[in-house]
UniProtKB/TrEMBL annotation:
Organism name: Polarella glacialis (Dinoflagellate)
GO cellular component, one term: membrane
The keyword Methyltransferase belongs to this UniProt entry's keyword annotation: no
Protein name: ABC transmembrane type-1 domain-containing protein
SUPFAM superfamilies hit by this protein: ABC transporter transmembrane region
Keywords recorded for this protein, A-Z: ATP-binding, Membrane, Nucleotide-binding, Transmembrane, Transmembrane helix, Transport
Occurrences of domain ABC transmembrane type-1 (ranges): 1-209
Gene3D superfamilies, sorted: ABC transporter type 1, transmembrane domain (1.20.1560.10)
Length: 250
């Protein structure tokens, strides 16, 4: 991305604000280096934990395994809307961040001009307005996370209610009796397994959201499509400069 940016002509820098470039090489690069690699490791660990807990749960309480596909379908149903929404909100958040960076760059570079024209207050108001817009987008992200968290918690509670009532069903003879240790294992591991599925879906959605930063860097790596800037060979371009009644008075 850096090589592609440095190889751009001067007119490219005129059409791309400095704050936008600064945002992509700060926020997006940090996301690609830290967040994406970390989330991929967490997803791999969640898969291993899910396999281990499923084996233990199959030995302790095979009936609980029948609820895992139902819980997975319910979690994925809400996660589908969550992923489609959080991606677009993340794009808006990154765009708002670029605006904040651009306002800061313009205020620092043009501080002499701003003070000369006594426009310190309007510049500060514009910067605060950009920060306010960024905070609103951040509030939307937090609200969406709470929305998906509530629905996933309700699905997890439904599975927890079944595993908690499982000893009661054994007491009334609806299921074969087991030892108290296996019953405790089934309750604990069923709740943890649902939590692992929930965390896996959230991490995968978060990874898909963070890939927006890689898309933005890839755009700078390949550069803009300059085919539209080139004029066709058949198009003749000519210009004429006229100076009617030109005179100089001393």
């Amino acid at each position: 991305a850096l090589q592609g940016t440095l190889s751009q002509p001067a007119r490219w820098w005129d059409g791309n604000p400095t704050g936008r470039v600064l945002n992509r090489f700060s926020e997006d690069v940090e996301t690609m280096d830290n967040a994406v690699t970390y989330i991929m490791g967490v997803i791999f660990g969640a898969v291993l934990y899910f396999v281990g807990h499923s084996v233990v749960l199959a030995v302790a309480n095979p009936f609980s395994l029948a609820l895992l596909p139902v819980a997975t379908i319910g979690l994925e149903y809400y996660a589908r809307y969550y992923r489609a929404t959080i991606r677009e909100v993340q794009r808006i958040w990154l765009t708002s961040m670029s605006t904040v960076y651009q306002d800061m760059v313009e205020a620092v570079v043009g501080q002499v001009t701003v003070r000369a024209f006594a426009n310190v207050r309007p510049v500060m108001c514009r910067s605060i307005e950009g920060l306010d817009r960024l905070q609103r987008v951040g509030f939307c992200k937090e609200t969406i996370n709470l929305w998906i968290g509530l629905r996933m918690s309700l699905i997890g509670y439904m599975v927890g209610v079944y595993t908690t009532l499982y000893p009661v069903f054994q007491y009334y003879g609806l299921f074969s009796k087991q030892s108290a240790a296996l019953v405790g294992f089934s309750i604990q591991y069923s709740l943890e397994t649902v939590g692992i599925i929930r965390q896996f879906i959230l991490n995968f959605s978060d990874l898909e959201m963070q890939l927006v930063s890689i898309e933005r860097l890839e755009e700078y790596a390949h550069g803009p499509d300059s085919s539209s800037d080139n004029h066709p060979q058949s198009l003749e371009i000519s210009g004429v400069l006229q100076r009617p009644a030109y005179s100089v008075c001393l």
